[in-house]
Amino acid sequence: MQNITAGATDGIELKCGMSGSHKLIFTLVPIVYGCIFVIGIVGNSMVVAVIYCYMKLKTVANIFVLNLAVSDLTFLITLPMWATFAATGYHWPFGGFLCKASAGLVMFNLYTSIFFLTALSMDRYLAIVHPVRSRRLRTVVYARVTCVVIWLFAFLLSVPTALTRDIHHIKNSNTTVCGVLHPELEAEAMRLKELRLAINLMKSLLGFLVPFVIIITCYCLIGRALVGARQIQKSTRSRDDEVLRMLAAAVLAFFLCWGPHQVFHLMQVLTQLILKDNCAVVEIIDTAMPFTICIAYFNSCVNPIVYGFVGHNFRRNLLRLLRCSPRRATGPHPSISSKVSGFSFRTSEALSLTTKSKASSDVK
């Protein structure tokens, strides 16, 4: 509810009233948040436990998936507060510090999740399309350094969001909300407006569009490589299809979860810049935003399914975890992406065979 935050912290009066305030939102959104919280906590905790207990962190994919699960867990701990915020009619009873911290963690999870998904996509591209040449880059050391860079970069990008949030008292409804600052002084208001515009643009570009283009590009190149290899090795068709289904599910989940929210987020930015006094448009956006946010937050539940539970080895280790089976002292620990990595070398061989066959035909 961006439009409810214009004014000073000692009490503000809204031009459009408490837009987006509907009983359906106050009832449905907390229920959805509660379901996401339970499913996400259980799913991501299982991912962390399975990787920690039964899979050594000696593969790049395992390291990225573990960090992705930890990122989702850090965000999920804020959902009970946001559920309370919605259930009480957008009343924030937790104080200014938790308002800033919770808003910052939401943006922090947005960036870390998408950055780790992008890193995982690039790793899958290198592993499948360039398995031999990428060995020097796809090491545990590089993966850990990449994770540290992602955490730090995402933290820096989320700090402005936390600094521009605070609690406000709404005179129209006698409610205290957690929202964006808007000072009364014109000079400060102009600077804050420019900062908010920069934050929103970064959220759209760095938080969705640029990573999505990279992910789509990686998976298109992977798909082309797998299709080319399948023409040479007909016996691996089922494995090709399984890998393609997993990659397609990852892309589809990413787009469906974050796409609607990013569309309305761009509309919200345009409204603030052009149609800020059009209460009808503000009402539509503020009504739709809670539902798009629910869909976006659902990505924290989808990640464990797409990147963990699809793998046969992960399911087997999950059953071992649920049965409280002890860890094996010896023997290799399978990777979450073992099927993909194992097939990558056959893909490289098939692609080289294709190149050789074309070269021989040219000689003839």
Automatic annotation (TrEMBL):
A GO cellular-component term linked to this record: external side of plasma membrane
TM segment ranges: 31-54, 61-82, 94-120, 141-163, 201-222, 243-261, 288-310
Keywords: Cell membrane, Disulfide bond, G-protein coupled receptor, Glycoprotein, Membrane, Receptor, Transducer, Transmembrane, Transmembrane helix
Domain of life: Eukaryota
Any one GO BP annotation for this protein: regulation of vasoconstriction
Location of this chain's protein in the cell: Cell membrane
PROSITE patterns xrefs: G_PROTEIN_RECEP_F1_1 (PS00237), G_PROTEIN_RECEP_F1_2 (PS50262)
Membrane topology per record: Multi-pass membrane protein
G-protein coupled receptors family 1 profile domain ranges (all copies): 43-307
Keyword Iron-sulfur in record: no
Matches recorded under SMART domains: 7TM_GPCR_Srsx (SM01381)
Family, as annotated: Belongs to the G-protein coupled receptor 1 family.
Role, per record: Receptor for angiotensin II, a vasoconstricting peptide, which acts as a key regulator of blood pressure and sodium retention by the kidney. The activated receptor in turn couples to G-alpha proteins G(q) and thus activates phospholipase C and increases the cytosolic Ca(2+) concentrations, which in turn triggers cellular responses such as stimulation of protein kinase C. Receptor for angiotensin II, a vasoconstricting peptide, which acts as a key regulator of blood pressure and sodium retention by the kidney. The activated receptor in turn couples to G-alpha proteins G(q) (GNAQ, GNA11, GNA14 or GNA15) and thus activates phospholipase C and increases the cytosolic Ca(2+) concentrations, which in turn triggers cellular responses such as stimulation of protein kinase C.
PANTHER family attached to this UniProt entry: CELL ADHESION MOLECULE, TYPE-1 ANGIOTENSIN II RECEPTOR A
Entry protein name: Type-1 angiotensin II receptor
UniProt organism field: Labrus bergylta
Lineage, top ranks: Eukaryota, Metazoa, Chordata, Craniata, Vertebrata
